[in-house]
Structures are given as structure tokens and as C-alpha cells.
């Protein structure tokens, strides 16, 4: 198959969990990577080495362990800056996850009555509810792009949606439900034309597409560590330095200050401004290692692999009677998360039967209830591949779906 | 692997799923003794709209009727159907105790022996207790029923009459 | 020496980093545990096992790995609930650190003009700046208890400070600079008498004192994972269930919702209400293991150990000419963090000389600038012990301080 | 271990620490060409209040005087003293280039060979570059000086005169 990673076998060996067998001795077929990715040994080992040999609090500590820990943490910032092609390392703020990064923006960007915030109907709840809350607090209006039947953004009324009162245009780069890859540079330009800030949710893009914030030209971009082979507990907010420094503080606490008296305080510049308290140190170190790992394999190569697997999966899935894929049917226009319906069997039941065969997929609304509502469904089944996924695993999924139909006696 | 799966998907469950009992909302939601609730499973989006009608019997309140609209998986659909069968016509107190028995079965991690006397078709859900992710599915409508019943009780409590809690 | 942990040697073997040697081959003497604690092997191994064998996203995933991961995460919640003697597991909210937990409260507790918030002069910046920001936003007034020369809370004007307009009384259980143990139950009662919410910062208490939220009777209590032998990236907010459920949402996103439409959403109850997005899963698992580890050794025994070491250290430190300890001089009335000044040598320089001998202490304001200002100093040197600290390590510190004086030719 | 430490605490540094030059604020902060700044090291609380006085010379602005009040460690105190020695009396452009040279030395992780011609006593700080936690100490007053100088320049720029950026 064209496009697959050349050393797929070797890559799979990097991920210890892929050796696991599940109940009944069946091997694991992990097709839930859009939910969270598995971790390569090198990331785990790097974290262990940090905990066993270099653990100390950062910045504040002047001793050797403190210096080592600080260097590891700040080194991770450099790696992430390189991963995003950020012009400055100061622009990389470590958060807890993508959700916190989005909420940080929604809490600190000033909004008021008369302003509006534009999002899309395919956003993850984290990029919806955060702005709903911001609009409730401020009196700003929430607007959104609808979707076409093909699962793409409906740009027909874009001229009405984004206007001179738009303060923020926030949208996902790749949909976690539909797989759709959005025209990010166009959207960023539209925002800029009206003086609005552009916020890109790259949670699903960062694992599988090369990201260059300078080429995209956006104002802010977020992603989450656990989907790019890193640990949980760490996310990234990138923003233009002058914009970040102009935002008011988010959380108050250690490390984000310049000076503190009981009555008032002054605040540090980014990145520390937004890293109050002891940050996720070992998690940042793990993330730094993870983006290095991905960079070493190459995001272009990973992207090609995902596209090859996705094309193969789209083909296989459509061989199952009564199966309907939601979102673009052209693999080159989408990411590796494929949500589908199967006539007569509920997603939970599909996932359950697949699980009994070792095939791990997600069933539910995938934190994208509005996108499901748009397609008239409550929930769906989603398979999602990653750099370690093989065509044989897709075959196992497709066979499992045939079996599911016969188990539930449909068709 | 198939044995595990079969312990979850008992024939009884699949039957109720294909042919749910008491499905479709009935009665007037605004009349006395009637309460309607809407519950969702936040994780998967399964939903149930459930209506309970209580009447006064000689020895206390009685579950006159239960009806519902629901979307969800086989477990949640079948559980709703079985629940309606079990509680309709029973005094509220007794129905609550069936609810409690079912709850204990579901939270028993597969260690609780189901009581067929009390749970009837509900014993088919014993296998569900071994699948933590599915317990919520099985409980969705039972929780909705409890909630609706509590509302209908406080709502329709005849002044000076007996109240249950 | 009375009170030391009986199996100190064995306990030290649990901590791989204690075997480390530093530049010049000198062994590590880690006296910076109030900054962050070291991690026992069992915590590291538990995290590795989770990452290598059970990694999956929680709640949302219905497959076997998802069930295992969810069980591990929710199991950690049970362990933390037991650690705090919380009446319900739902009352345990996982946050990123103590700082986030305090900011969560400062953002969600409703305040307005005419209200006041009372803190103390010995708080960590996280329990100062969070409330400063809340007061700035809301127009509420910030008040604080001052300190006596002995480093205890000055309760003389308590009756003026806390009044019927007090909405929040927030204070640390144990000071991270002065070591002072505060009269928490008295303070909690004072808050309750005026209908104010009590918030306890137990970041320094949780590592070394048995905590029983029911006995203390407080409304909210926070602590941070990395100081109780757990990893970074995880903290705990405990609160009374009905109070937590009455607070408005904090961050919007996945898992904190009940249902979402584009226009509005409804929210889950605690703990999920305040756990938006993918939580720090492996970090919670590590924390659960850490509090189990501490519980196994016994918090009473750890407390006795800390007091024995602290008494020994106070004695040793006072043998150094020109050294002044800040905070209570009676070991039974304080925790194991001891900040001091040394005539003629700046804390940075002290820490540097000590570091060249392998002794790791902290120099600076320890995120407690106001408390330093109260004692007329910019910064101090702080040694802080933990359950793995030996008397010989205190000796090394004291010798190092004598050496520091001669290196800088003072006295 | 002592060798490492001695490379940090050179005699010159300890001398400046014990007997700092130009310490104590001088002159009138409100007069033309004078700017005063207050900088802190957020991590450790070290502080410096620094006053710069620029005058116009025949070939551009000149650093007429630098004075300060400061609390901090030996490295930060000595660095302030050395900095004042180095920049006072120099044309602003030249002083800025000394600043740049010192900055490069500090950020060189111990790999940069110090230029005694330019840095004079400042070469004693070469060892500091190997201690990342102390680099900020050494730079505190240099950053303050740069900031104050920039302010004094914009403040006192004679209309129509030369401006530097
Ligand atoms: C008393 C006290 N409160 C709060 C904190 C903040 O903890 P964290 O930095 O983990 O949020 C600390 C430690 O830094 C502390 O000692
Ligand atoms: C598109 C998108 N945005 C945001 C998120 C939120 O990420 P996290 O849960 O790590 O905060 C996710 C994943 O859950 C996602 O797929």
C-alpha cells in the first residue's frame, strides 16, 4: 500500500501497549487514537529518568537538581516551539490540556455587549462551552458556521457571520468527529480582515499534520499533549508574544508574578505570566520528547501514513451493508478519525462487540454533540488511526463490523 | 470472548430491545399525579423522556403508568422496557424497593446474585454489572423513573395526605 | 533519636534519586522537600505500568483499556477521599495543582462590592494573588491577618477582620516559609460564625499531618500532588458536595457537561463539573499510589519523624553564629520547613556553597514575599525535610553553613 | 567541587561585593536626561533601583552617571558595581555594545571566551555563565540599565536631535 510508513513494524515495537492481549487472549487493535494516542517507550523512559534522577521544582530552585529540572522543562518549550515553528520560545505556554488553553483565552480576551464570537458547528465541546460561558459573562453574542451535508464548513453566509464586531473567530483545524480538514488560512485571513483574533484548535491536527504557525498566520493555536504521543496533564497554548503579553492574568499564584504585596501584585511576561503554580514538569518533559519523536519520523510521513490508512478504511467500511460514514469521503480532504452509523445497531453495542474481539473504538458523541445533532444522530461509532496503525487492523475492524451485524441479526 | 459477550447480551435483553414494552409517551403530562423528566447520559448522549403517573390507592400511592421516549443502546432500551414492566401497577414503596434491588445488582461488579422473585426479566442484566461502562446505560431510565416519581409525589401530595420519602 | 521512622534506611531505598551523586561525586542531600518531594519507586512504577499497559482516555471510552484506565483514575479518587476522610468521593476534584484549585474557588465563589475576603500575611502567592484578582474583578475588599514577631497569626484584631460581610476566610494550614502550624479549627469556626466559607490551603500540611476534613469542619481544602510524593500536574480540590454543586462552572469543555447545543449547555455535577477536558489521568493514578504509600507508613509516624528532624535541625542551625531562624522555635508547633538568615551572606550565595557540597536547599522568597517583607527581608534560605531525611543530612547542612561562613570570610 | 565554586566566586567578584562602586542614588531624578527604573528578579526577590543620567556630547549622547540602590546576592551586587564602572563616561552607543558583549558572555553557557579589552573586571563573570540559575542575578542590573537608558533617551531627546534605537 502506498504511503504507509516504511518501518511500520519497527515503529510498532516502540509502543509497548501494542503487545497487550485482552480478555480471552485476543490481541489489542487500538483504533481510538483521536481520543488519546499511545505512548512510545522513549517518552515513558524519559519521564522515568526525570523522576528517578532529576526531579526538582523549576525556576525557584538554585541547586543542581533544580537546574537540571529547569533545563529539561525549558528544553521542552524549545522543542514545542520548533514543532510549531514559533518565532519565539516565549510564545509557548504550557497548560493542563487543550481545554484549559481554550478556556484561558475565553477568560482573558476582553469581550462586551455588541461584540461577537464566531465558532463552528463542528467544534469539540471545549471550543464551544468555553465561548458560551464567555459570552454569558460578557454579553457578547455567540455565532457559528453551519455544516454542509458533506460535513464541511458551510461558508455561504460567512459574510454575514464575521463582521466588524467580531472579536474572536475560533475553529478547529481538523474535526474530531467528521475528520474534516478546514481551510485554516482562509479563515485566519477572514478574521484578520475584520480585526478579529483567530484561535485555532489544533488538537486533532497536531498529531498528524505539519504545523507552522507563521505560515498559517493565526493569532493563537492550542493542542493537547496526550494526542501527540505525550502524557496527559499537559497542553499547549501558542500565541503571538505581544498579544499574549497584552492579556490580563489568568490564574494568580507562584511564578506568574513580578512582585507581590498584600494589597497588589504585578505580573511577569509570557510564558510565565500564564503558568501560575508548579507547572506539569515531568509532563512537559514527556511532551518535548514526544514531539521530537514525531519530528524524527516526520510529520509529512505520518500524514501520508494516515491518509493511506484512512483511504483503506473508508473503502473497507463502505463494504459493510447499512454503514454510513459521516464527513468527507475523500481521504485526502480529511484526518484519520472516521465516525459512522450502522443500521439497526447502536454505537454502544457495536463498540461492545468489537471490544470482545480486541478492537477498541469510541462510541458516543465524542464531545461533539452539536455536530451529531446536525446529522440527526445522538451518537456514532468512531475509529481513529495513528502512525502505528496497520492495514491488518483495519481489516480486523471491518470483519468485526460484519460480525456485529450477524450478532445482532440485522440485514 | 463470545461467552462474555453472551452474558451481556442475554436473549431477554435482545428481545426487549427489539420489542420494547410501554414505549411511546401516554397521558396528559399536566394532570395531577403526573411528572415528566428528561435524562441524558452525558458520556454517550443517550436520552430518555419519561412520564410517571401516580394515583392514590387504599394503602398509599400507586404507580399507575410509566411511558417514555428514548434513544439509546440495547442495554438502555431493554432496561427501560423491563423497568416499566416491573413498576407499573405496584405501590410506590414496593417499586422503590425493586429499584433499590436493581441498583445493588448493577453496582455489584458481577458479585451479586440476582433475585428473580423481585427482578423477573431484570435478572438478565446481571451480566451488565461486569461491564462498568455499561452500568450507566442500564441505570439511565431507572434513575429517570426515580426522579419523576419523586416529583410526582411532591407535586400531587394531597394536603394532609400521606407523604413518602 | 526519638520519633524517627523506624525503617528509615528501607524507606530511603524506596527513593531512587537519593542514590544520586552530583558534580564532583558528592552525594545528594535533598533538603528542598517543601518545594517538591521526591518520588518513591512504587509511584513511578505504577505510572509506567499505566502508560505501558492500560493507557486510554477515561469515561468516554467503552473498550477494555478505557475501562481499566477509568477504574484506575476513579480508584485514585477513592484513595484521595480516604486520605482526607472525605464523606463522599464526589467531593474530590482533580485539578492541575494547588494553585489551580485555589483559583477555581476564587473564580467561582460569588463576590461583590461590600463583601470581603480575609487571608493572612503568611500565605503562598497562590492564596494571595488569586483573591487579589477576585477582589479586583468583583469590587470586594481584601483583608488579612498580620503576623506576630514569632511568626504566628496575629489574632488580636480578628474580631474586626472577620465580620458579617466576610464571604471567604482562606488560610494556610502550615506556612511554607515560617513553618507555623495554624489553629485551623478555630479559624474554621470563626468563618462559620459569620457565614463565611472557609478555604484551607493544605499544600504543606498534607505531606506531614493526618488530615480529616470532617474533623476540621472546613468548607474547602486544597493540596498539591507533587509535595506528597506524587507527580506534578495534579492537585486536589476538596469541598462539601452541596457547596461544590452550587458553584457555577469553571472551565467549559468535555466531561463537565450534561448536554450541549450550540446556543447553551447544562452541566454535570461534581466531580465532573470541574474536570473539563481530558484530566491528568496518569498523574491521578500516581497520586493515588502516593497517598497509599504515605498511608501505609502512617501520617502520624511521618509527622513524628518530621518533628524529630525539625527539632534536631533547629538545634543545629542555632549553633551557627549569626544565623536567625524565622518562625516558631518550638518544633512541636511547626512543620518541617525552616527559613533562616545568615549575617553577611545572601541566601543565593548560601545555597550555592551548599549546593557545591551536594546540599540542596531553596533560596529566595519561596512564593511568600509578603511574609518576607513582614520580617524585613527580601529573601531567605530554607531547608525542608521529609520522611526520607536523616539526622546525618542535617549535620551536612550545618557543616555546610559553617563552611559558607568561612568561604565568605564572615565572623 | 571547590574549583567549580571558585570559578563562580572570583576574587574580583567578592571584592566588588564587599566594596561596591557607585552605590547610593545620586542626582535629581526629575531633571532632563535622567531616568530611574526599578527591576526585580521575580524568582528570588532581588531588587535594584537604578538611575541613569545622559548628557549630550559632541558626537552623541553620553552616559554621564549611573547610581543605584540594590539588594541581592554577591553576583548581582558585584555585577551592578562592575556595570557602573564600565558604562559611566562612555557614549551610549559604546556602552550598549559593552552591554551586548556581557549579555553574550552570560548566555554562552560557559563556551564564550571573555574579551578583557571590552569587559575589564566583567571577565570575572565568565564562570557565572556555567550556573544557569545565577545568570539572571548577573544580568539584573544590566537589564535595568538598558531600560533606564532607553527611557532617558526618549525622554531627553532634544527636538530635531539625533535619536538612537
Ligand atoms: C502553602 C502552599 N500553597 C500553595 C502552593 C502551590 O502549590 P502548586 O505550586 O503545586 O500549585 C505551595 C507550593 O508551592 C505551598 O507551599
Ligand atoms: C478537536 C479537539 N479539541 C479539543 C479537545 C480537548 O482536548 P483535551 O481533552 O485534552 O483538553 C479534543 C480532544 O478531546 C479534540 O479532539
UniProtKB/TrEMBL annotation, chains A, C:
SUPFAM superfamilies: PLP-dependent transferases
Keyword Transferase: yes
This protein's record includes keyword Transferase: yes
Alphabetical list of Gene3D superfamilies matching this protein: Aspartate Aminotransferase, domain 1, Type I PLP-dependent aspartate aminotransferase-like (Major domain)
Class in the EC hierarchy, top level: transferase
PROSITE patterns reported for this sequence: AA_TRANSFER_CLASS_5
Cofactor: pyridoxal 5'-phosphate
Reaction it catalyzes: (sulfur carrier)-H + L-cysteine = (sulfur carrier)-SH + L-alanine
Domain Aminotransferase class V: 29-397
Known function: Catalyzes the removal of elemental sulfur and selenium atoms from L-cysteine, L-cystine, L-selenocysteine, and L-selenocystine to produce L-alanine.
Name of the protein in question: Cysteine desulfurase
Protein species of origin: Nocardioides furvisabuli
From TrEMBL, chains B, D:
Short name of any one Pfam family annotated for the protein: NifU_N
All residue ranges annotated as the NIF system FeS cluster assembly NifU N-terminal domain in the record: 9-137
Gene3D superfamilies: 3.90.1010.10
Top-level taxon in the UniProt lineage: Bacteria
Entries under NCBIfam families matching the protein: SUF_scaf_2
Full protein name: SUF system NifU family Fe-S cluster assembly protein
Organism: Nocardioides furvisabuli
Amino acid at each position: 500500500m502506498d504511503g504507509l510508513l516504511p518501518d511500520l513494524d519497527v515503529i510498532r515495537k516502540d509502543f509497548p501497549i501494542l503487545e497487550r492481549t485482552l480478555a480471552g487472549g485476543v490481541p489489542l487493535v487500538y483504533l481510538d487514537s483521536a481520543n488519546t494516542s499511545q505512548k512510545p517507550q522513549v517518552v515513558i523512559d524519559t519521564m522515568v529518568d526525570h523522576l528517578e534522577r532529576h526531579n526538582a521544582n523549576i525556576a525557584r530552585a538554585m541547586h543542581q537538581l533544580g537546574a537540571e529540572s529547569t533545563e529539561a522543562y525549558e528544553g521542552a518549550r524549545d522543542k514545542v516551539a520548533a514543532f510549531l515553528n514559533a518565532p519565539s520560545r516565549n510564545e509557548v505556554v504550557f497548560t493542563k490540556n487543550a481545554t484549559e488553553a481554550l478556556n484561558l483565552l475565553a477568560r482573558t480576551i476582553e469581550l462586551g455587549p455588541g461584540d461577537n464570537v464566531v465558532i463552528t458547528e463542528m467544534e469539540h465541546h471545549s471550543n464551544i462551552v468555553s465561548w458560551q460561558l464567555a459570552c454569558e459573562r460578557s454579553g457578547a453574542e455567540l455565532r457559528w458556521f453551519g455544516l454542509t451535508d458533506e460535513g464541511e464548513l458551510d461558508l455561504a453566509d460567512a459574510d454575514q457571520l464575521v463582521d466588524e464586531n467580531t472579536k474572536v473567530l475560533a475553529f478547529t483545524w481538523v474535526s474530531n468527529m467528521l475528520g474534516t480538514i478546514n481551510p485554516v488560512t482562509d479563515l485566519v485571513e477572514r478574521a484578520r480582515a475584520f480585526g478579529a483574533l483567530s484561535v485555532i484548535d489544533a488538537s486533532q491536527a497536531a498529531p498528524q499534520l505539519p504545523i507552522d504557525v507563521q505560515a498559517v498566520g493565526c493569532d493563537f493555536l492550542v493542542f493537547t499533549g496526550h494526542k501527540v504521543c505525550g502524557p496527559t496533564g499537559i497542553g499547549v497554548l501558542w500565541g503571538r508574544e505581544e498579544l499574549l503579553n497584552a492579556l490580563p492574568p489568568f490564574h494568580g499564584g507562584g511564578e506568574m508574578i513580578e512582585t507581590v504585596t498584600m494589597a497588589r501584585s504585578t505580573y511577569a511576561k509570557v510564558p510565565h505570566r500564564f503558568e501560575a503554580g508548579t507547572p506539569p514538569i515531568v509532563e512537559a518533559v514527556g511532551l518535548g520528547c514526544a514531539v521530537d519523536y514525531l519530528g524524527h519520523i516526520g510529520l509529512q510521513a505520518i500524514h501520508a501514513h494516515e491518509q493511506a490508512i484512512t483511504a483503506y478504511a473508508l473503502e473497507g467500511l463502505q463494504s459493510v451493508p447499512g454503514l454510513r460514514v459521516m464527513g468527507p469521503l475523500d481521504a485526502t480532504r480529511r484526518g484519520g478519525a472516521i465516525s459512522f452509523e450502522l443500521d439497526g445497531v447502536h454505537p454502544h453495542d457495536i463498540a461492545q462487540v468489537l471490544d470482545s474481539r480486541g478492537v477498541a473504538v469510541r462510541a458516543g458523541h465524542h464531545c461533539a454533540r452539536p455536530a451529531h445533532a446536525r446529522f440527526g444522530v445522538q451518537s456514532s461509532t468512531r475509529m481513529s488511526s495513528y502512525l502505528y496503525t496497520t492495514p491488518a487492523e483495519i481489516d480486523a475492524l471491518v470483519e468485526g463490523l460484519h460480525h456485529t451485524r450477524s450478532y445482532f441479526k440485522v440485514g | 470472548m463470545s461467552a462474555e459477550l453472551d452474558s451481556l447480551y442475554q436473549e431477554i435483553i435482545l428481545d426487549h430491545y427489539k420489542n420494547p414494552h410501554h414505549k411511546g409517551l401516554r397521558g396528559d403530562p399536566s394532570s395531577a399525579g403526573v411528572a415528566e423528566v428528561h435524562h441524558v447520559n452525558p458520556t454517550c448522549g443517550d436520552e430518555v423522556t419519561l412520564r410517571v403517573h401516580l394515583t392514590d390507592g387504599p394503602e398509599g400511592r400507586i404507580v399507575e403508568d410509566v411511558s417514555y421516549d428514548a434513544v439509546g443502546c440495547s442495554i438502555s432500551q431493554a432496561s427501560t422496557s423491563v423497568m416499566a414492566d416491573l413498576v407499573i401497577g405496584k405501590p410506590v414503596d414496593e417499586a422503590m424497593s425493586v429499584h433499590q434491588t436493581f441498583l445493588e445488582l448493577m453496582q455489584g461488579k458481577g458479585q451479586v446474585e440476582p433475585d428473580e422473585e423481585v427482578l423477573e426479566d431484570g435478572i438478565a442484566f446481571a451480566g451488565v454489572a461486569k461491564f462498568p461502562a455499561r452500568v450507566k446505560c442500564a441505570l439511565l431510565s431507572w434513575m429517570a423513573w426515580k426522579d419523576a416519581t419523586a416529583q410526582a409525589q411532591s407535586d400531587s401530595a394531597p394536603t394532609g395526605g400521606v407523604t413518602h420519602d
